[in-house]
From TrEMBL, chains A, B:
Keywords: Metal-binding. This is MBL fold metallo-hydrolase. It holds the Pfam family Lactamase_B. It comes from Massilia jejuensis. Residues 14-174 form the Metallo-beta-lactamase domain. InterPro entries: Metallo-B-lactamas, Mito_Persulfide_Diox, POD-like_MBL-fold, RibonucZ/Hydroxyglut_hydro. SMART domains: Lactamase_B. PANTHER family: PERSULFIDE DIOXYGENASE ETHE1, PERSULFIDE DIOXYGENASE ETHE1, MITOCHONDRIAL. CDD domains: POD-like_MBL-fold.
Length: 233, 233
């Protein structure tokens, strides 16, 4: 049965953080927590009586710093990250096809969806796809840094994400318009960047975006590759 | 089994809107939709393939205008509102103990929880309590207008809401600190206004808040009593 995650939002970077928990156990997983919200996120776990067992990252973010290291330290959870993102201190280096198990039979499937960054992963749980910045609601992540590739993103979305069951709920890594959730089927039919578009057309569109360099990138990427902990700590 | 709702947020008034849907049917219910988000909310229903059958209001709001009338008009859903709020054009005037049925056996129980306003209702669905402005996360709604009463709010919370199963997830009508959800048990033990406080102490505290009059109240309350539709429409 589809279970919705708990969705939390960071207004500064428009980043979503997700808490996943299933019936029959108080174990929980958090995806993409944000540095200055570590107390808020711990309070949610406490209020709901949840025990954090894994902190997952979809990729090494360029626009905000993770609280993965801090949450790991304070809860005893393990950090689980894409193997291709250079996040060395994490316990679990995830590869395509891996399954993360928690709670009473809950399973998260790991899907390698490169393009926004070379290492980016999506996570599939109970009819939900957590797509990080690979696929956004009516959009997608940029592909012009961190070994990003429009070609790779096109393949990840058209061959992998759009092949999921069409009713799969799609929970993005960011949203800038107050949206919360979509479905794979809707994005396949309507996503302004990716629906019914040829590879050439998509790559041309992405190459012409001319986006400014993210303000935090030079600080955030190395910080996130250390789970948000001070280097040398 | 506890199913989380889909939670949407209005940054202007810090209001939460909720979409509820269960397995085996595409019928859905929306609680407390906000006027200028009607398109966003319809897009969520469309993306998830949902058919709106009821628009619920927890009370006649003083700080924002509902889109209930608009959504009703555009979807054919029925408006269901607390009988004591003077919202005349709604199809269903709800009373304490009523049950709203939708989808494949989904049931929403109606609990009269006066105090923030005389008519305020809470809605209970699958281990979730939607408490409107009666009970907020680590707080509660004000009681100084719309026949509000600190005495009544104290009774609603201590006798009714705090008697629900302690693990019930509590989804408030507003939050001003980026929080999403709590539990009845946590609020009973820790809510700064209501946990372990005598009636006298609570009423004194509420009488000393000296809050400014809500900017929108003279417009919003009459508008909401007409489901957000222009009068005479
Ligand atoms: Fe990113
Ligand atoms: Fe209110």
């Amino acid at each position: 049965m589809n279970l919705n995650p708990i969705q939390l939002f960071d207004t500064e970077s428009s980043t979503f953080t997700y808490i996943l928990t299933g019936p029959g156990s108080n174990q929980a997983v958090i995806i993409d927590p944000v540095d200055h919200h570590w107390e808020r996120d711990l309070r949610h776990l406490e209020r709901l009586g949840l025990q954090l067992v894994y902190v997952l990252e979809t990729h090494a973010h360029a626009d905000h710093v993770t609280s993965a290291g801090k949450l790991r330290e304070l809860t005893g959870a393990q950090a689980a990250v894409p193997s291709g993102c250079g996040i060395a201190p994490a316990e679990l280096q995830l590869n395509d096809g891996d399954v993360i198990r928690f709670g009473d039979g809950e399973e998260i499937k790991v899907l390698h969806t490169p393009g926004h960054t070379a290492g980016s992963m999506s996570y599939i749980w109970r009819g939900n796809a957590f797509t990080g910045d690979t696929l956004l609601i009516d959009g997608c992540g940029r592909t012009d840094f961190q070994s990003g590739s429009s070609d790779a993103l096109y393949d990840s979305v058209s061959a992998k994400l759009f092949s999921l069951p069409q009713e799969t709920r799609m929970w993005p890594g960011h949203d800038y318009k107050g949206q919360a959730v979509s479905t794979i089927g809707w994005e396949k039919r309507h996503n302004v960047r990716l629906a019914n578009r040829s590879r050439e057309d998509f790559c041309k569109l992405m190459s012409e975006l001319n986006l400014p360099k993210p303000k935090l990138i030079d600080v955030a990427v190395p910080a996130n590759q250390n789970l948000g902990l001070p280097h040398g700590a």
